[in-house]
Every structure is written in structure tokens, then in C-alpha cells.
Design a protein that fits this description.
The chain is α+β, with helices and mostly antiparallel strands. It contains nine helices and 26 strands.
């Protein structure tokens, strides 16, 4: 450990001398403050920390070979030249400042291999820039130091350093890696603060989002779910390319979080719907982990919400949220739909407990609103019901005969119009025409009150027989028409016969005629009523012949 401390001091001193020399020839005011160690990784704790695979390679701790100890970080299963360990230092270094990157590299491949430190930055337009920090031809089985000092671009929104080897299948190790320079005081002095809930709506800028892989993420006002801006993922070459954001310092490890985002795409060249995935990427002991939060089919031209819950492990590092199109099987040729451009807006990350609380509050508000609306509707319905009832009662009064309670001539004429217009209704009814006999005799010999009593008596009998299956109309002084859905002829004849035998101090006899729809004989309501009238007249003459003493003189 003493040797390692001496090494760190030497590196710091050399970095200080290196950064100071260019200025000593032109100024007498030379700063004596040594640059700070921003990042120091010796991997002796057996953990990869914030180191993460750049590309699809693997990282693991090697306990058999190190620079000053037995421990280092080894890269394996490299398939592309750029793949290797990477460190996201966006929150540690400041744009416009100069930094020294120093570390040791080792490989066991045959022959010298070109290994480099490279800095990847992204500006406010989503454009990636790559700057080589240091490179060397490294002979096998020897730990070699690489060191370089470069300025961070003024417009850099994110910064990531990664180690690569020009030969794609060569595996290598790194150890004792340091970044020295002026620290980001806010990142140094303020502990990471997790948030219960945060929303990224992109109204001001990228909100920390950047490109995942070789593509472009743009800040645009072309489309937006709400507000005026969103981010646009374009120039994609792989299905896994997409916008991503580092949320390591904003979410608590080991706690369930809710994630949601709105996605939309358009373009005549794309299919009508496509699967999109919202995933988390993080490092666990140097191994890149990729976990699906949720996937959903998105329809072209329509903002679609993708949402789900996920708990980030306690030892996760460099946690990134990203959105991509659906995965493509290895070896399968990519189509234009797999690399389509798309928009992302209104991304929400919140603790599950917060979302459940908000949902409970929302449910209570909805329930209260529903109760208020229900009460309001009940009041409105009652008011409407009362008004309709009054209106119907008024119409009923207008259409009713005041003396008998039967429907009057106006109601009868209206019903005849309806039946003339709709023959199907006419087919379903049974008809009767009834007339009180000897009304002149009753009025002359017993008075008009008795005549009225006979008319009311007839109406009451007919209404009782017809009941709710139809209606009774008073169409003249002592003449009634019955329309019912059930047969009524026998009931009327029997009831009137029985009633005529009851002595109430005056003779009571009713003539009746009946008919039904017949396609050939009585094809309309006019023919039906005419047939009823014909039968009723014949019945009336029969009653008169049998009771000549009451006939009109």
C-alpha cells in the first residue's frame, strides 16, 4: 500500500508539472495548487465500481494479475475494436477544464497491440465527439502506463472515457486508473440526492439524455406530447440504439420505482405499428446488465405510453434508462422499421409508494367526483322526470274525456293517423265499437243525469276489460271504440249482458261490433272500423226489436 500511495503522489505531481509547463514561459503567476484526483480505481475491493462495458464485451475482476497488487479489471469476449471498459465521468468533471487521464494496461496476446484511452463527449445538439487521449503499442505480458492531458469541450453535456484495442478479439486488463484535474465541486461536496419523483419533459433542453451507440439524439419542437418540445432519436444503425439517461444519483437502490415514457413515430416508409422497449442498463461487478421494464406496440402517428415497475439492485452502478425498438434476433437482417426514427416525451420516474399514494388520491378524487356527478345527475333526472310527468299528465288531460275518463275524440283521431301510417301496428290489435242503447228514452224519462250515468257505466266496463293492454276512446255522445292487444269481443258481450240484468232503476243495454285486420277483407284501419260499425248496427237493431217499449218515438 505504501508503494501505491507513493505512485499516486508521483502521478499527481507529474500531472501538475505537465499541466503547468505550457504557462511558465509566459506568466510569472504560476498556481501552486495540485490537481485533485477525481477518479481512482485500483479494484482491490474486488468490485468494478462504476466501470461498465462499452459495447457488448464483458468485464470481471481478475485476482491473479495486477499492476501493483494481484487485482485488476479484465475485459473479455470483445468482438469490436472499440469495445472495452468505460467510465462515465459527466458528473465529476467540468466542461472547459483540462484533465489528465492516467492508467496501466496489460495483455497476453501474441505481438504488440495498439491500446488507447478515448474520450467520448456529446454536445447540446446530441452530436458525439471522440478524442484520443493516449495510445501506445503494448508488448504482451507487461504492464504499461498510458497518460494524456486534454481539455473537455465547452459545450460537452456528457463525458465518458473508454479503453479500446485496435485488434477486436484481444482481451486486456486495466489497473490503477486515475483522472486528475479540477473537480466538479457540486458533485464532490453534495451527496447524491435521490428523488421521490421527477419528470423530464424536454421543454428546456435534453434533461441529461444522450445517444446510446452510434446515432443522434436531437432536441426538437417538431412534435410534443405536451408543451412544445421532445427529443428525437434518429440516424440509428442498430435496434438497440436509442436515447438514454443516467439516473444513478436520482433513484434509491433496492427500492421499487415506476417508469413511464411517451413514444411516437411517423413516416410513410414505416409499418403501421411497432414494438418499443423501455429498459434499464447498469453494471453489477463489472458485468453489464440489461433488464426490460416494459414493452408495448406503438401505432404510427399516435403518442403511446410505455410504463412499468422495477427495483434496482443495491450494488448496481451507472444506472441508465433507455428506450429502443424491439430486439432483433442475432443474424437476422435489420429492416428500416428496426432502425426507424422516433420521438420521446414526458418521461416520469417515481417511487412506487409515491405513485400508489398519488393513485389512491386520484381514486378518491375520482370517487368523490363520481358521487357529486351521480347526485347531480339524480337531481337533474328527477327534475326532468317531474317535468316530463307533468307534461304527460297535461297531455293526458288534454286527450282524456272529462266525464268518463276515457280517451277523447282528438286522441282517437291521432291514433287513427298512426295506424294508417303503420299497418304493422294495425295487425296486432283487436277492435270493438260500442254504443249505449235507448239514450233518448233515458234522458226523456229519467233525466240527463241518468243518461250520463249510463254512458259512464258503459265506459267503466270497457276500461276494466281492456285494462293496460289497450285504450278506450269516447268518439261520440254514447259511442266508444276499443283497441286492445288481447281478444276482447267475448268479454265485452258477456260483461254487457250481465250488466243489463242488474236493475239500477233504468234499462241498460249496449250494442257492440268487432273486427280484426284481414289482408283481403279489412286491410286498413278504415275498413276495420267500418266492419265494427256494421256489426254494431246489426246488434243495435236486434236489441231494439227485442225491447220496443224503450225505442225512440
Amino acid at each position: 500500500m505504501k508503494v501505491k500511495k507513493l505512485l499516486i503522489s508521483a502521478i499527481t505531481f507529474l500531472a501538475f508539472i505537465n499541466s503547468s509547463l505550457p504557462f511558465t514561459a509566459f506568466s510569472d503567476d504560476v498556481s501552486t495548487q495540485e490537481p485533485a484526483i477525481i477518479v481512482g480505481s485500483d479494484f482491490e475491493d474486488g468490485k468494478a465500481g462504476k466501470w461498465m462495458p462499452f459495447g457488448n464485451c464483458e468485464l470481471h475482476i481478475d485476482n491473479s494479475n495486477g499492476h501493483l497488487s494481484e487485482t485488476s479489471l479484465k475485459t473479455a469476449n470483445r468482438k469490436m475494436a472499440y469495445e472495452g471498459p468505460s467510465y462515465n465521468c459527466s458528473d465529476l468533471i467540468q466542461p472547459g477544464q483540462e484533465y489528465t487521464f492516467n492508467g496501466w494496461v496489460y495483455h497476453e496476446s501474441s505481438g504488440a497491440q495498439s491500446i488507447s484511452f478515448t474520450l467520448k463527449t456529446q454536445d447540446s445538439y446530441g452530436v458525439d465527439s471522440f478524442t484520443q487521449i493516449a495510445t501506445a503499442e503494448i508488448e504482451p505480458n507487461n504492464w504499461v502506463n498510458l497518460s494524456g492531458t486534454i481539455p473537455i469541450p465547452e459545450d460537452a453535456l456528457s463525458s465518458l472515457v473508454y479503453i479500446e484495442c485496435s485488434t477486436d478479439n484481444v482481451n486486456f486488463s486495466i489497473d490503477d486508473f486515475y483522472i486528475l484535474g479540477e473537480s466538479n465541486n457540486a458533485a464532490d461536496t453534495e451527496p447524491a440526492k435521490t428523488e421521490d419523483k421527477f419528470v423530464m419533459d424536454f421543454e428546456g433542453d435534453f434533461d441529461g439524455w444522450s445517444a446510446r451507440g452510434d446515432m443522434t439524439v436531437a432536441h426538437t419542437d417538431e412534435y410534443s406530447k405536451t408543451g412544445t418540445h421532445s427529443i428525437y432519436a434518429t440516424n440509428r444503425t442498430k435496434a438497440w440504439n436509442g436515447p438514454m439517461v443516467n439516473i444513478s444519483n436520482r433513484v434509491a437502490k433496492g427500492e421499487s420505482y415506476y417508469y413511464s415514457a411517451y413514444v411516437m413515430y411517423n413516416g410513410a416508409e414505416y409499418e403501421d405499428s411497432h414494438i418499443f422497449r423501455m429498459e434499464l442498463q447498469y453494471s453489477e461487478n463489472g458485468v453489464g446488465v440489461y433488464n426490460l421494464i416494459s414493452s408495448k406496440s406503438v401505432k404510427k402517428g399516435k403518442w403511446t405510453k410505455i410504463e412499468g415497475y422495477y427495483t434496482i439492485p443495491e450494488d448496481a452502478q451507472n444506472v441508465c434508462l433507455y428506450i429502443q425498438t424491439d430486439n432483433v434476433e442475432e443474424g437476422k437482417q435489420l429492416t428500416k422499421n428496426d432502425t426507424m426514427s422516433y420521438y420521446v416525451d414526458n418521461v416520469t420516474v417515481a417511487k412506487a409508494a409515491v405513485m400508489k399514494k398519488e393513485q389512491n388520491i386520484r381514486n378518491i378524487i375520482i370517487a368523490l367526483c363520481s358521487i357529486v356527478i351521480a347526485i347531480f345527475l339524480i337531481v337533474i333526472i328527477r327534475v326532468i322526470y317531474k317535468r316530463v310527468k307533468k307534461k304527460n299528465e297535461a297531455l293526458e288531460l288534454v286527450s282524456k274525456d272529462a266525464m268518463t275518463g276515457s280517451y277523447n275524440r282528438n286522441a282517437y283521431e291521432q291514433r287513427i293517423k298512426e295506424l294508417n301510417a303503420d299497418t304493422e301496428q294495425c295487425k296486432k290489435l283487436y277492435y270493438a265499437l260500442c254504443d249505449v242503447n235507448f239514450l233518448k228514452y233515458l234522458n226523456d224519462n229519467h233525466g240527463h243525469k241518468t243518461g250520463d250515468a249510463a254512458i259512464i257505466r258503459c265506459a267503466d266496463i270497457l276500461k276494466e276489460i281492456v285494462g293496460k293492454s289497450g285504450k278506450v276512446y269516447r268518439i261520440g255522445g254514447d259511442e266508444f271504440v276499443c283497441m286492445a292487444e288481447n281478444p276482447i269481443s267475448e268479454k265485452i258481450l258477456e260483461a254487457m249482458e250481465n250488466e243489463s240484468k242488474i236493475d239500477k232503476g233504468y234499462p241498460f243495454m249496449v250494442a257492440s261490433g268487432f273486427a280484426q285486420y284481414d289482408e283481403e277483407k279489412y286491410p286498413s284501419i278504415t275498413e276495420i272500423i267500418a266492419q265494427c260499425d256494421k256489426e254494431m248496427y246489426a246488434h243495435k237493431q236486434k236489441i231494439k226489436a227485442e225491447n220496443e217499449q224503450f225505442s225512440r218515438k
